[in-house]
Each structure stands twice: as structure tokens, then as C-alpha cells.
Known about the structure:
By secondary structure, the chain is mostly helical. The protein contains five helices and no strands. It has a domain at about 50-95. Helix 2 (about 35-45) packs across helix 3 and helix 3 packs antiparallel against helix 4 (about 70-85). The radius of gyration is 24 Å and the shape is flat.
Amino acid sequence: MKIFTKYKAGFITLLMTVFFIGAASAGSDTTAFDSIWDEVSLWAVNAPGKIVAFLTFAVAVFMGVVQQNYVAAIGAFFAAMLIANAQTVIEYFLTAGIEITSTISPVVTAVAL
């Protein structure tokens, strides 16, 4: 009985995905958050971002030398690198997407009688 409900839920999810895939598209107003994005990206690139990246790097050095916890040191180092490149990383994710065409061409097959 449980297997049937799992397959039924999976089938309904697949069916909903197929029917509503066209409705899941991004909006066309791309200027709504420009002023906020400009301010936050300046924070990430200028002094506040550099201070946070330096402090994270200092934590990585402390974890690696004093406590000899290399996993935490590597994690803090990668966090510092992410903060240093925050603007590039976030802009990459904001512009990534899948192109959706507005027309669907029907498939016509010929049947020989």
C-alpha cells in the first residue's frame, strides 16, 4: 500500500511539473532591486567586505595554528574567498537560467493506412 502511494505522489508531481512548467518563468521587471543591489555589492567589494574577509581569514589562521582544526580552517578560508568574490558569484547566480521558448511546436506523425 505504501509503495502505491509513493508512485502516486511521484506521478502527480511529474504531471504537475509537465503542465505548469511554462508558468515558472522570471518576471520582466529587472530594475526593482537595482538600488539595493548597488548598495550591497559596494559593501561586499569595499571596506566592510574586506574587513569581514580579513576577519574570516584570521579565524582560519587561528583554527589552523592554535587549535589545529584544519577542517574549520579550510572552511573559514573558503568563506573568506567567497566574501572576497561575492559580487561576481551573486551576479552569476542572478543571471543564470534556462531559456523558455514561448511556442511549442506540435509533433505530427503520419499513419499509413
